[in-house]
Amino acid sequence: MAMAALRREGRRFAPLISPRPITAVRSSPIAPTYEDEGPIGVRYISTQVVRNRMKSVKNIQKITKAMKMVAASKLRAVQTKTENSRGLWQPFTALLGDLPSVDVKKSVVVTISSDKGLCGGINSTAVKISKGIRKLNSGPEKETKYVVLGEKAKAQLIRDSKKDIELIITELQKNPLNYTQVSVLADEILKNVEFDALRIVFNKFQSVVSFLPTVSTVLSPEIVEREAESGGKLGDLDNYEIEGGETKGEILQNLVEFQFSCVMFNAVLENACSEQGARMSAMDSSSRNAGDMLDRLTLTYNRTRQASITTELIEIISGASALEG
Amino acid sequence: MLRQASRLLAHRPILAARTRAFSTDLPASEQTADATFAEAWNKVIPNIDPPKTPLSFMQPRPPAPSSIPSKLTVNFVLPYASELATKEVDMVIVPATTGQMGVLPGHVATIAELKPGVLSVHEGNEVTKYFVSSGFVFIHANSFADIIAVVAVPLDQLDANLVQKGLTEFTSKLSSATTDLEKAEAQIGVDVHSALNSSLTG
Q1: Closest partner CB to A242 (pick from B55, B111, B148)
Q2: Counting Cβ atoms within 10 Å, is residue B108 exposed (0-12), middle (13-18) or buried (19+)?
Q3: Across the A/B interface, how many CB contacts are shorter than 8 Å?
């Protein structure tokens, strides 16, 4: 390893200890150019470095453009599904209302994020909102746990809240999203996690360029009953007759589980849509930046090329005029 | 590239106008619920905007009218589609756990769980029948009915032979089941298939 370090050092010092006399380096302020020496006396500036950079930037531009097209086609596929699933959670909110500021002891935050990166800032906003909700619900006797869906949120939350994470679920989008898969997932969460209120944090897809972080609250049956008794938003829940021989408690239990799976399904789809949309815009801006960079590099390249041609001409002409006398 | 981008954007109409009501349209009670959350959020986390809640994305429902309206407004939703969205009909018959339940405008507010069976929607002279797997139906005081089912198929897409085969298969599984879980699963299969059978014949 010491030999490798020495070799590395040797390579770094090599340009300075070259046996040839160091001539004045003429370099443009933007791109580094090296002076080469060909046959005796002729100097020309190499454009190799600039050309290499241009090639790599062009490749990056092609890759990001391709990624944008792929994201656009995936978005089209998921978007129809998402729009169709939007009607699913509305009846529940119409019946049970939405109480994000409900006062509970055990709240569980379900953070939905993507597995792959390069999708802009949506995962960090989801994590920031989750942490904010945790702060909002902090107090004596209150605790907040996390259920994490997706690699990106897992990486961010594991750093400071490792002991608060109950479940981590990744590779959700390996197979196309469907309700059966999400209901199995919801079942797992309901079985393993105790909660008074579940808050699902996701990015709602509003348009290709706009994603709104949203939090949906699902209350456990006991809390629903408590809120219904105390009046207020859920007060007229008691006016609803329960059809069938089951008690109100049993029906509420089934209702809450069904509500959770429906809301999760919509949330997962919306987040997938937002992920593809964000990836589209991120890749679009990066290919545009690559294009700008390519333009600037082309200008530098041309300048360098013309400078070297001019130098050659000057030397030839001055040599010829020196011979003439 | 920019032309393509604008073409893509034009194909996707901006959804905000359709799904999001303006904040001035929200009835006062919904605004207060959102407002308390937003205030509490802004006190604790002033730098970040509060997240949106489902209430801001929902069309508000009309309050209970004083006289019984003439039509029932039905929302029939499935995970993959909204079959009927705020459709005005005369009557729906839903397969509740206690049997077929007819819902007319002015029905008392009810929450009912559904068992596998036939759902029929009556509008004027036409009747549309679906077989639903299970779900819930909420009937609100303002003659709005929300039917949420997991799977719903029109009856003409059911194959009688497959139904018979499934029924015999699940009855044999039920008789040979050992654990409680297997028994429960086989029982569910038998229930669904016998409901399918009776919907095709009856």
Answers
A1: B111
A2: exposed
A3: 158
Q: Which of A122, A125, A105, A106 is nearest to A114 (CA)?
A: A122
Mean of the per-residue pLDDT values of chain B? 79
* Cα distance between residue A41 and residue A104, in whole Å: 84
Contact B102, A234 (CB under 8 A): no
Q: How far is it, in rounded angstroms, from Cα A124 to Cα A157?
A: 10
Residue B74 and residue B142 in contact, taking contact as beta carbons nearer than 8 Å: no
Structure tokens at B103: 């819902």
DSSP secondary structure code for residue B94 in this structure: E
Residue ranges and CATH numbers for the domains of chain A are 67-232+248-284 (3.40.1380.10)
Q: Which residues contact A245 (CB under 8 A, 6 or more apart)?
A: B97, B98
Q: Cα–Cα distance between A59 and A191 in angstroms, integer?
A: 49
**How far apart (Å, rounded) are the C-alpha atoms in residues B161 and B4?**
50
Average pLDDT over every residue of A224-244 = 76
Q: What's the complex ipTM?
A: 0.78
Asked whether the predicted pLDDT for residue A96 surpasses 90, the reply is: no
Q: How far is B54 from chain A (nearest CA, A)?
A: 6
Q: What is the CATH number of domain B71-157?
A: 2.60.15.10
Note whether B83 and B72 are within 8 A (CB).
no
pTM of the model: 0.81
Amino acid at B35: A
Residue A227, token pair as written in the block: 């809120």
Residue B179 clears pLDDT 50, i.e. is over it:
yes
- Chain mean position to CA A129: 15
Nearest to A240 among B5, B45, B111 (CB): B111
Using DSSP's 3-state secondary structure scheme, residue A22 falls into coil
